[in-house]
Model the fold of this input.
Amino acid sequence: MTRRVAFIDGSGQTAVCNCVVLAGIVYEGPASYVYAFGDYVDALRRRYGIAGELKWRELWRRGGAAAAEELEKLFETAWVSLHYRGQASLAEALWSLMRRLRAHLYVVDDGLVNPRAFPRTISRPSHKVPGIQLADVLAGYHRRAACGRSGGT
Done:
């Protein structure tokens, strides 16, 4: 059975008046969300010499900004930036992103939002879910452009 799963992560501190970017990437296929993008993430880690979790800040330090551009060419992605004013502004941006990604299931990084507030949404730790790691790369990349910072989360 083919399912659409969207992985979502954010970059930026959720403190009032900060620029935050939420980004997502869609997997469409038969694999469980736990394994989706696993081989791709492993290949990126090898290519850039990253041990452990694939994170934007590590990829950026190793000159891997082109990896984010590659993701956008190969997969369906979307992102939104927001001026963080509180959880309501974050929720509004997440709703906007979810409408653009249209998936059967949304997997968000732990601590980003309360998944119970959003239909078909679960939260998982990014170090265990390759799709969330790719969403982190996209969020950091776009935060750098949208906010003028390295997007170090």
User: Anything to note?
Assistant: The mean pLDDT is 93.
